[in-house]
Amino acid sequence: MTNFAELNTKKMSSTYTSNLRIEKAATSKLKDVNFENIAFGKTFTDHMFMCDFVNGEWQQPQIMPYQPMTMQPSARVFHYGQAVFEGMKAYKDDDGKVFLFRPEENFKRINKSSARLAMPEFPKDYFFEGLTTLLNLDKDWIKPGVGNSLYIRPFAIAIDPAIAAAPGESYRFMIICAPAKAYYKGTVKVLIAEQFSRSANGGVGYAKAAGNYAAQFYPTNLAQQKGYQQVIWTDADTHTFLEEAGTMNVFFRINDTLITAPTSDRILDGVTRKSLIQLAEDNNIKCEVRPIKVNEIVEASKNGSLKEIFGAGTAAVISPIEGFEYQDTYYELPEIGAHSYSSMLKERMLNIQHNLAEDKHHWRYEIK
Amino acid sequence: MTNFAELNTKKMSSTYTSNLRIEKAATSKLKDVNFENIAFGKTFTDHMFMCDFVNGEWQQPQIMPYQPMTMQPSARVFHYGQAVFEGMKAYKDDDGKVFLFRPEENFKRINKSSARLAMPEFPKDYFFEGLTTLLNLDKDWIKPGVGNSLYIRPFAIAIDPAIAAAPGESYRFMIICAPAKAYYKGTVKVLIAEQFSRSANGGVGYAKAAGNYAAQFYPTNLAQQKGYQQVIWTDADTHTFLEEAGTMNVFFRINDTLITAPTSDRILDGVTRKSLIQLAEDNNIKCEVRPIKVNEIVEASKNGSLKEIFGAGTAAVISPIEGFEYQDTYYELPEIGAHSYSSMLKERMLNIQHNLAEDKHHWRYEIK
Ligand SMILES: Cc1ncc(COP(=O)(O)O)c(C=O)c1O
Ligand SMILES: Cc1ncc(COP(=O)(O)O)c(C=O)c1O
């Protein structure tokens, strides 16, 4: 875990001299926001971070009032979807201290995504200095307490005005922030994919590439029409192995063992997923990382050994799944309430994130 | 083939009353353009077409001077790649008449793409009225003669300012135009994909979805470093069947038979491809539409029966392939020059497009 002091030292000796330019908003929109009733991802804080890549170099990074921007209709992102993103959260404790959760993982992942999309990697010191300064400016937007957070969206897009189907030369890296409550309300019913797929072997499924998400909207709409909030994707070859949900990795509990699919070039390496695997170990819960056949959970459901399914991701934290449909049959999960692994793990996770529990793996990253 | 008179009649009785608003450019940029030396997709004509979808309806369509536009950083297209496009060309004959080639196919295809990306379909009369009016305004940008054309880029993007991972409610449909010479210069060497893939079964490969293209940039870069301009994609499951290239379908000639892969949910149903299949029939060339194993063309190359490979697409028309690499071996195609099917079919195609030959299938669509 890199801390910011280290980063600053590193920055001095790096070829990047960040020289972050800051333009503060004249007034804050904060007073107009009703935090009790906030829709996910529609309200943004007072400031945003922006840095352009031109002529082979990242230019001066800037923080400025959150505002619209001017784009050419020919900008490559509109035509070829050359865009990647991340999703992180900031949490506040009762003393007003602000924390991120394993931000280094998100930093590494956005650069991994960028590499796969033929986009330039973003410098680490720019990322952490931008993030820290932005969160300090907008920290009043983070409400303390479990259930509240500030959703942080770093993203990068190709902006050159040229529609040849080839990587661009100009890019924009941005960070915008939106106050958030829980993402999915209540429990979730899911449909297991039998026809549509999310990603291919040798494709971009492991990257947070923009186009991966639009590709899921139509099949997810169809699932919703049948009463399912989400789709659990299966492998595109055979549709027999369980992979992940739209924005969550998935865990299955059979008897007292958790199982989750291994990551691959089709599956996103989720920060929540890897943290839960560690937390399971810390709490003496057996967790197997291995391919899982749909039939295995169908059988387990039939014989009563399937106890829980839950999704895991930054936006949703842990999202318990109430039941699933596969081959026109609906399988309901038993109600185990307070004894569930999902509620226990969720509580431990949130307590670490909100500085309410010991952080033995150094996952918290305080914003100073 | 719908003609515009019919469309106009239909429009009258449709629920859409287009009422196209036109704002002309004060001056033309045309005089500043050197048509002899024009890079693909970087220079745009004086006008563009724009129509927004808001509150469940397409709003008044507009033609206006080509110009940048304002976008929210939270616009869904930046985050989730909800964007589709088309590629068409306009040609001018020596009498100054302007023609499109099978534009109905592009119109149908962009709506097919939109449906798969959970985007609203665009009304036919808006599309054709917009296109016709735009081309009439900018017709001086189309130079007569074979080899010249105006590349037309209809596209649609999700513009609502909200980063929940779900389909948007606001969209923008646009048409921009760029004068074009031949897209690929000279012959092309290709690498046959063994590891990376373009699309999955049950995915969005058959749609002109923006994200499909960014996903190809990195593997194509790697191929270029090895001296290959393009990748020929294979099926993601086994990498043993030949599919298509980045922006072209592919034809193989073994002895005197052409072979091209069938379209599927992974392969774009190209207008050039389907026109060439017809032209082959018209010219008594046998053309088989069937799965083709990589090994089949490797064997055919070894025993001398593989005569030609060429790509087919609107941008490149027909692009002869000089050789291919597969499993670290380079296979060179024989030089058959003027006797090739590719040059014969390309000439027939261009002659139809440029009003120099009979158009027995009614593919030309005159802009009046
Ligand atoms: C496809 C996909 N899977 C899983 C996740 C969960 O990853 P993380 O726990 O890092 O948020 C996300 C999003 O965040 C995702 O987009
Ligand atoms: C993936 C892909 N395949 C094939 C083609 C060729 O299609 P068309 O002949 O309609 O231009 C295109 C582009 O135009 C394409 O993007």
Automatic annotation (TrEMBL), chains A, B:
Record field: catalytic activity: L-valine + 2-oxoglutarate = 3-methyl-2-oxobutanoate + L-glutamate; L-leucine + 2-oxoglutarate = 4-methyl-2-oxopentanoate + L-glutamate; L-isoleucine + 2-oxoglutarate = (S)-3-methyl-2-oxopentanoate + L-glutamate
Alphabetized PANTHER family for the sequence: BRANCHED-CHAIN-AMINO-ACID AMINOTRANSFERASE, SUBGROUP IIII AMINOTRANSFERASE
Organism of provenance: Psychroserpens algicola
Cofactor field: pyridoxal 5'-phosphate
InterPro entries referenced in this protein's UniProt entry, alphabetically: Aminotrans_IV (IPR001544), Aminotrans_IV_CS (IPR018300), Aminotransferase-like (IPR036038), B_amino_transII (IPR005786), BCAT-like_C (IPR043132), BCAT-like_N (IPR043131), BCAT_family (IPR033939)
Pathway: Amino-acid biosynthesis; L-leucine biosynthesis; L-leucine from 3-methyl-2-oxobutanoate: step 4/4; Amino-acid biosynthesis; L-valine biosynthesis; L-valine from pyruvate: step 4/4; Amino-acid biosynthesis; L-isoleucine biosynthesis; L-isoleucine from 2-oxobutanoate: step 4/4
EC category: transferase
Keyword annotations: Amino-acid biosynthesis, Aminotransferase, Branched-chain amino acid biosynthesis, Pyridoxal phosphate, Transferase
Name of the protein in question: Branched-chain-amino-acid aminotransferase
Record-listed E.C. numbers: 2.6.1.42
Homology family: Belongs to the class-IV pyridoxal-phosphate-dependent aminotransferase family.
Alphabetical list of Pfam families matching this protein: Aminotran_4
Top-level taxon in the UniProt lineage: Bacteria
GO molecular function: branched-chain-amino-acid transaminase activity
Xref: SUPFAM superfamilies: D-aminoacid aminotransferase-like PLP-dependent enzymes
